[in-house]
């Protein structure tokens, strides 16, 4: 059964984007993007699978945006009470993430990132 336990709040208001951009050290890009999106989970709609469903829907959104040439910034805003208040999100709903959406700056160069080797994250047959 596909209950779609999520809501996407589209945020275009400059003041709101500015307020949200100050809530997290990695959220400054929210104020510069034309659109922000708050991804909200609804545990009451699908108690057993809501988190997996919401994150999957968010990743499909991100991939779809990328496919049409848009850039997306992801802010780990999980259950930020101030953001929930700014956006009027009910107490029983869960703010999962905030996204910035727009055309990427062609001059932007991401900082080099280190990732774990496959040997560090892949296990065979059982936990070892």
UniProtKB/TrEMBL annotation:
SUPFAM superfamilies: FMN-dependent nitroreductase-like. It comes from the Archaea. It holds the Pfam family Nitroreductase. GO terms for molecular function: oxidoreductase activity. Keywords: Membrane, Oxidoreductase, Transmembrane, Transmembrane helix. The chain crosses the membrane at residues 57-77. Residues 28-103 form the Nitroreductase domain. Belongs to the nitroreductase family. PANTHER family: NAD(P)H NITROREDUCTASE YDGI-RELATED, NADH DEHYDROGENASE_NAD(P)H NITROREDUCTASE XCC3605-RELATED. This is NADH dehydrogenase. It comes from Acidianus hospitalis (strain W1). The lineage of its organism: Archaea, Thermoproteota, Thermoprotei, Sulfolobales, Sulfolobaceae.
């Amino acid at each position: 059964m596909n209950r779609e336990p999520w809501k996407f709040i589209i945020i275009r208001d400059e003041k709101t984007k500015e307020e949200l951009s100050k809530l997290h050290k990695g959220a400054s890009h929210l104020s510069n993007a034309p659109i922000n999106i708050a991804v909200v989970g609804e545990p009451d709609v699908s108690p057993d699978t809501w988190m997996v469903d919401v994150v999957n829907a968010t990743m499909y959104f991100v991939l779809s945006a990328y496919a049409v040439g848009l850039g997306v910034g992801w802010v780990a805003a999980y259950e930020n009470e101030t953001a929930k208040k700014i956006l009027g999100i009910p107490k029983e709903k869960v703010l999962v993430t905030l996204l910035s959406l727009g055309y990427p700056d062609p001059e932007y160069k991401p900082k080099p990132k280190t990732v774990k080797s496959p040997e560090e994250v892949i296990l065979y047959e059982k936990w070892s």
